[in-house]
Structures are given as structure tokens and as C-alpha cells.
Amino acid sequence: MTNISQTNISQTNISQRIEAILYLKGQPMTIDEIVTVSECDRGAIEDGLVDLIADYAHRDSALEIIETDEGFGLRLKSGFTDLVQKMIPTDLGRGALRTLAAIALHNPMSQADLIQLRGSSAYLQVQELVDRGFIQKHRDGRSFYLEITNKFHQYFEIDDLSKLA
């Protein structure tokens, strides 16, 4: 039986769906992981990835699709590292900042939901963010809840996160 979402998604939309998934995940994903999240069949995902890679290769874009040992990812082209240095605090890595952004946007957020969104590397990033005072970690039964702190608001000079959403 064919999944209804597969029959209603054109190849262009599959490429856009893959692009959105890679952007949201923020780290490389295998084809199988993309298939699971997208609810599309493997052949459609493989074709969509080929189309997306070709599209980015011909775009005048700051982003690119890359293939690593861990899978496919969306990243900023290396020619823009000067902007990264200006825009991102040097003491926090890009992964930790993405994890912090996810927590801030979902504040508060369960650690389980964060790990599902960002992957297992977020465990280390959470500890780094707790150590630096940007988030607090509270136990609720068997799980943890994460929330941003006053230091986050002071450091990033953001008083009201609802204005960003």
C-alpha cells in the first residue's frame, strides 16, 4: 500500500522537503534517516538528493549540500567563514549554538525532544550550555527539561523570544 503523502508530493517538493529536513537537523543524515522523516520512499529520496545537489551546484548560493561519512548535510560554503567568525561567539561552536537556538525556540523543552530533533551529539552540547550558564536542566520524573537562563537573555540581548518566532 502506497503512503498517501508519497502520492501527493512531486519530485520538486521532495527536494524541498529534503532541504527542509537537512536544514532543521543541522547535521548530516543518512538516506535511511531522511526516508524515515520524510515518509517518502528511498528511490524518491535518492532522486530528490541528486536534484537538490545539482540545484545547489548551479545556484549562486551561500549554502551547499555535502556528502560525508555520516550522510548528507546542508552547510555554509567555506568562503563565508569570515561571517561565521563575526556572527557567532567564538567560544560556542555552531552545533552548540543550534542546540541553544532549538531550546530557546521551544523553551522549555524536554531533553528527549531535543535529542530527537538534534541527534545524540546534543547530549554533549547540553552539558556545555549548562556549564556556561545559558540553560538550566531540571529533572521531571525520569526525564530532564531544559530552559534558557537570564544569562542567555543578557548575552544575546534578547528580551522577548516571541518576537523572533
- Please state the second-level CATH architecture of the largest domain: Orthogonal Bundle
Cross-sheet strand order for the largest sheet: 3-5-4
- Portion of residues in beta strands equals 15-25%
Mean pLDDT: 84
Query: Could you name the ranges where pLDDT drops below 50 across 5 or more consecutive residues?
Result: 1-7
For CATH, the homologous superfamily of the largest domain is named as: Winged helix-like DNA-binding domain superfamily/Winged helix DNA-binding domain
Oligomer: single chain
Helix content: 40-55%
Structural class estimated from helices and strands = alpha+beta
Strand and helix order: HHHHEEHHEHHEEH
Total domains: 2
Q: What features would you describe in this structure?
A:
This protein is an alpha+beta fold. The protein folds into 2 domains: 4-80, Winged helix-like DNA-binding domain superfamily/Winged helix DNA-binding domain (Arc Repressor Mutant, subunit A, Orthogonal Bundle); 88-163, Arc Repressor Mutant, subunit A (Orthogonal Bundle). It is 54% helix and 16% strand. The chain has 9 helices and 5 strands; from the N terminus they run H-H-H-H-E-E-H-H-E-H-H-E-E-H. The chain has helices at 4-7, 11-25, 31-38, 42-58, 81-87, 94-106, 111-118, 122-131, 150-156, and strands at 63-68, 71-76, 109-110, 135-140, 143-148. The strands form 2 sheets. A 3-stranded antiparallel sheet has the order 3-5-4. A two-stranded antiparallel ribbon has the order 1-2. Strand 4 and strand 5 (143-148) form a beta hairpin. Helix 2 (11-25) packs across helix 4 and helix 6 (94-106) packs across helix 8. The longest helix has 17 residues, at 42-58. The chain is globular. It starts with a helix and ends in a 9-residue tail after the last helix. Mean pLDDT is 84; it is low at 1-7.
